[in-house]
Amino acid sequence: METLDVVRVFCGPDGRHGNELGVVRDGARIPVRADRQALAGKLGFSETVFVDDPERGVIDIYTPTLRLPFAGHPCVGTSWLLDVPELVTPAGVVESRQDGEFTWITARAEWAPPRTLRRYGTVAEVDALDVPPSGEWIYAWAWQDEAAGRVRARGFPGRDDGIDEDEATGAAALLLTHELGRALNITQGRGSQILTAPGPAGVIEVGGRARLAEFSPSGA
Fold first, then answer.
1. Rounded-to-10 torsion of CA 174, 77, 167, 145
2. Which end of the chain has the least Cβ crowding within 10 Å, N or C?
3. How far apart are CA 140 and CA 155, in angstroms?
4. pLDDT tens for residues 89-119?
5. Selecting from 3.40.50.1110, 3.10.310.10, 3.40.930.10, 3.40.47.10, what CATH number does the domain 111-207 have?
């Protein structure tokens, strides 16, 4: 039987919220992609990570319906859980560091899956949004305090994965940081927190808090 850890990633300052992530530490015991995809679908998390080599940080990432070469919250959560300096993903090597209560990863915007970044005029408009019809993956956002780089955001996967709203989305935060060209402090979902910072040569850091969570078969 595979070993499953559940990690809440991008928790708020009070340690609550965050997006649940399933991490199968002994992923090498499930070598077939179809079997991994089936398990990810059964678990129902927005992403599930299979660790193929814990010492080198080699990982494989799945949503309930597809395999991803890179995703933000799985990389932050797995880096924290394994405490490794880097992860090896199909998209490339993701460097990782610990800074107090935050775990940071480095990645490139071109690694992120496509998202529609949709800006709204006020935080109240974002808060009032209903889940849109199925279709495109929408990252709805508004400035909470533009001068301070504070953003209010919500993520809607388009229901393709059976998930109406994503609580915290590192890849979308990565894309928004790339588009705006500045460091951001994002409050997403019910109260999750994502920090970002542009770096040299197109590299962007994404950081957040992670905590172990109780396993629930339904996922987030």
1. -50
2. N
3. 6
4. 999 999 999 999 999 999 999 999 889 999 9
5. 3.10.310.10
